[in-house]
Amino acid sequence: MLAADAFSRFEEEGIFNRETGQSFLDNILSRGGSEEPMELFKRFRGREPQLDAMLEHYGIKG
At residue 6, does pLDDT exceed 90? Predict the structure, then answer.
C-alpha cells in the first residue's frame, strides 16, 4: 500500500518531476532502515497513507 501511494505522488506531479524525485531520495531512499517506514512515508507524502492508490493500481477503483 505504501509503495502504490508513494508512486501516486509521481503520477500526480509528473513522473519525471525533479522536485518529487529529490524528495523521494531525501525522505525515503537516503534514510534506509534508520527510521520507521511509516514516518518516512508521511514525510514524503505529507499525510497518512491512503488505500485509494492501491485500489486504483489493481483496477478495483476507477
Answer: yes
